[in-house]
Amino acid sequence: MTGYIHYLGFWTPGPIELAVIAVVALLIFGRRLPEIARNIGKSMTEFKKGINEAKETKDDIVQDVKKVGDDIIDEAKDAAGLNEDDTMGAD
């Protein structure tokens, strides 16, 4: 019994099964197949655009955070009197 369950858990279709599945899919979706492929292509394009927009947004946020961090450091140095413009004892 356990061997049968084990066999079903790791079944993968062979070449003949894949061919049968392809024939059945063509019979069912034959006329709509180009439309389905086109829609999948459009979906992939939109997904890639979304990923690129997310990356750009992330980069913008990282730059804003770095700028704010640099501004805070500069203000802290100004408040502590550690300006880079001030040189002690130099002419």
Short structural description:
The chain has 91 residues and is mainly α. The protein contains three helices and no strands. 78% of the residues lie in helices and 0% in strands.
Overall average residue pLDDT: 83
Strand content: under 5%
**Count, helices:** 3
Q: What is the structural class?
A: mainly alpha
Distance between the termini: 92 Å
Tell me about the largest β-sheet. Answer: none
Low-confidence runs (pLDDT<50, min 5 residues)? none
Radius of gyration: 31 Å
Shape: elongated
| Helix and strand run | HHH
Q: How many β-strand stretches?
A: 0
The percentage helix is over 70%
Description:
By secondary structure, the protein is mainly alpha-helical. It has helices spanning 2-9, 15-29, 33-80. The protein is elongated and about 80 Å long.
Layout of helices and strands:
Layout: H1 2-9, H2 15-29, H3 33-80
Q: What keywords describe this structure?
A:
91 residues, mainly alpha
